[in-house]
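Suppose you are handed a protein chain with no further information: no name, no annotation, nothing but its sequence. What can you learn? This example shows the usual starting point.
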Amino acid sequence: MDFSKASGLAVYLQITQKIIIDIQLGRLPPSTMMPGSRKLADSLNINRKTIVQAYDELVAQGWLSTESRRGTFVSAKLPSSHIAENLCTETVTYTPSAVTEAPSSQGNVIDFNDGIPDTRLIPFEVLSRAFRHALVISARANRLGYDDPKGILALRKAIAAMLNMERGLHVGVDHICMVRGSQMGIFLAARLLTRPNDCIVFERLTYPPAREAFKSCGANVLSVGQDEYGINVEELEQLCKQQTIRAVYVTPHHQFPTTVMMTAERRLKLLMLAEQYDFSIVEDDYDHEFHFLHHPVFPLASTDRAERVIYVGSLSKVLAPGLRIGYLVATAAFIERCAAEIMLIDRQGNSVTELAVTELMDAGEIKRHIRRTFKIYSERRATLEQLIHQELSSLVDFELPSGGLAFWLRLKKPITIDNLAERAFSQKVRILPGSLFTDDNEATQAIRLGFASLNKLELTEGIQRLKRVLSAP
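A reasonable first move is to predict its three-dimensional structure. Written in structure tokens, the prediction is:
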């Protein structure tokens, strides 16, 4: 293993990624015993704690498992397939060498949205200074004219560096197209992938605007089930045997709306199915930064050897939805097609905003903002967990999500879900009932509660109001 300090990615994460790649390529089959941490550290001439960190991360993500007194093994739950084996040119035996919180309510309504960040936390002075610089620089350099429809080069370079260092991707500026938020990225993917009556697969509960984007392009939208481990890949495989699938849309890191994280074995199986049945994967990684239990899991795109994944990301959850900065990552050829579509839509993005965000990234301001908001959102997450246990334990079930900015509450007793939101609004609390996330408004006994935009007082008042709604006969 070779490690690069210049890459910016922590060594333990470089080790993590290299082991994941070996697992995906079939070099490390399920149940393979891994070298002991001390032995591997000695072989690589690095600190044993680094290996322990890497193994802990791989166990947390589901790639490895530990057995008391036996050691660490590649998870036996991972699929073994000839597809993964065929991706290798040879079989290799694994060896070590190989803020002030003012009320955010509107009209005294507590809004449990779908996971919108708190715009009160934006460093306005820093942001306004960056915009002023961008305007001055653009005006003096006569750069307020037309620019590259893929986005300004400096920002694409900054995004590429961030993705390569922090998310394990291997991309350059030619693989990135800036868009006005993740929804535009999803629509571009839908427009380029979909021909009339193409079959596009979504999970039964999913992000409605994404489903509607594909429908608007003539897609025949199909649904498969999901559970606490993510998309039901067995059901997807049966569907693939019955008809041609053009693409599958997923939110594997924090599934929308249920918040679950897709397990390693299902991620690997999904990539295998994409290769076997010749479909694309649209990976919507809408709030990657906010993962609270361990280091965020690398995206599907980080280990996509067959170039099947179209990766959609956004800075909206980091800064504010109103700034409209997102990006789409794919092959260079696909990105060129995106640029051609953008020429038809609005010619280019907002170069001033892109320049300002570039300055924020280069100066490290965005990372500082993420660290600050991460701490605040982590505290609010803990507050909401405590409030639900105290006030709603007899009414709902839930699992504390490992990441994301929302909770998914399952109602213990069936209620009339159709007018739940209306009844809640009468108590001045806005909620999102589960039926909103189905294709046909099917009654779903669940609620999605976003917590990031509400402070402790607002969360407390909101849960008390919700309790009155759910307790009403």
